[in-house]
Each structure stands twice: as C-alpha cells, then as structure tokens.
Specification:
22% strand; 316 residues; four-stranded mixed β-sheet; globular
Length: 316
Amino acid sequence: MNPVLRQGNSDRRASSSVKQYAQKNPHRMGKWSNDSKSHVAHMSGGDFLGNEKSATITEQNVGKGRIEFVGVDGSSKVLKDNVTLDKGDVVDATKMGVNALRQFFRDQVVDAKKDPDVLFSLHMKAAMMKVSDPIIFGHCVTVFFEDVFKKHEKTFAELGVNVNNGLGDVYAKIGQLPAAKQEEIKADIQSAIKNGPNLAMVDSDKGITNLHVPSDIIIDASMAAALRTAGKMWGADGKEHDMKAIIPDRSYAGIYQVVIEFCRENGEFNPATMGSVPNVGLMAQKAEEYGSHDKTFEAPGNGSIRLIDGLGNFSR
C-alpha cells in the first residue's frame, strides 16, 4: 500500500464571528464519568504504522518507474506504470497484513462479549482512504459474521456480494433470492448479532448497524459525535452505551484514546470557554494520503509489491 500524493493548501480556520457565536450558543455536551468504560482498541503490530518505510530518490533513480506485484511463484503483474520519480522525492510505503488484521478483529469480538455494557463500534476513514479502509471494513464484517459468510459462501459469490460495502450489500443482493432463502439468511445474521457482542447502531429504529455501510462510520464524524456524547454510541435498545472504539491502525488511533482519558479524568469540554486549533495545511508541493486512490493496492495473492525505479532497480 502506497500513499497518493496530493497538491495544494488547505485553510479551515473558523472566522471570528462563527467562533463567537459558538461560544455564546454552546452545543450540548454529554456528561463524562470517571468510571466510563469507553476506550479505543487498535492493532499492536502488522498495521500501516508498524510497516512504514521511506526512501529518497537520488539522481541514479530518476525516471519513469512502475509498481508491480511479484508472486511467490515468480509471476509478476504491473499495478501502476509510468510513475514519475524526480530527484529528492520521498517514496513512502507501508502495508497492513490481512492475517494480523483479522486476528485483531477476532480478539476484539471476544473481548467485547465479556462486557454487555460496552458496544463493539468500528470507526474508519473510508471517505478519504477510499481504497484501504473499505477493504479493512469488509474484513471486519466477515469476521463478525464469520459463520454466516461460511455457511452462505457459495450463494454470496453467485450474487456478487461485495463485503467492502458492508452488511447493507448483503441485504440488497439477497433480495434476488426466493423468500424462504432470504429469511434463512436474515435469521442467520440476526443470530450472529444476538450471539455476538452488543453492536453499535447507526440507526437503532431501522436496525442499521455499525457494520452496514462504511460511509456511515466515517471516523472524523462518528468519533467526534461519540466524544461529544461522553464517549457513547447508540445500542440496539435505542439507548446510549459506552463503547469499544475499533480503530485498527495506530497512525491516528492513539489521539482518540488520549481524548477519552482526558475527558474521563477532567470532564467534558466546554465550548463556551475552550480554544481552538486552526486546521491549516501549507503544502509547498505535495502531501501523503495513505490508503487512497491510485497508489493503493490489495495484493492479488502471496508475494510482494515493489517499486521499480527508472533504471530497473527495485525496493520492496
């Protein structure tokens, strides 16, 4: 998995009038308790942060390179050609191991089941990291509903179910099946939900879970909303509960845990008196965005992905 490069500056500072209005009309904040069970769960290895490597392009590497997959059997496949490599460019790459990711999800499902007062709640950056994070989301769905996907593997394959689109895609695709088969699959899904940890909901009234659609749990919005409501998410009973926030990659998971710990100890933030941090990005040339666009790949098999420079040299 490689970062896409993005050019441009960003300035998201709130104007003085907007800031003053917010201070005079503070939005509601949930009341934090120092016995809150909410916490962030992330991988301890095998994630993007743990595998990151960088290299600087020298004059000897300049030219048009390519990114390719090389299988353990020696076969190769070009994933992207004509990659411009200029002197001084920083090539930064990383990967997330599927086995480590799926074991992490299994461990969190088991751990979440131990406490019925804590919701299993996945949070992803699937809008910006639109290649990597839907894939991660799909693995969480198939781990959480592992028995369902094993039992109906052939049917789902015939229907073209895309797990990266979540449980919602399962419900949409099984609409093609006879009523009896639809009810069987729906019953199996409900059984998995009943027998698994309590699952966070996007819409309790409509039965839309945290694992229905990746775009429903965009971390920028979902975690911010949860932190405003004292670290809670909605449960199937239509009530707020503490949560186990599942954020697999450590690149940004830790900052949310720090906020939870701060609020648990000091109480909720006060919009009427708190300051702000200007979101200003001044990029002279380019910026990295992991997991996005045309330089992020899902390995088609066992092997390695490597960058071949302008002279035919490569780095893994």
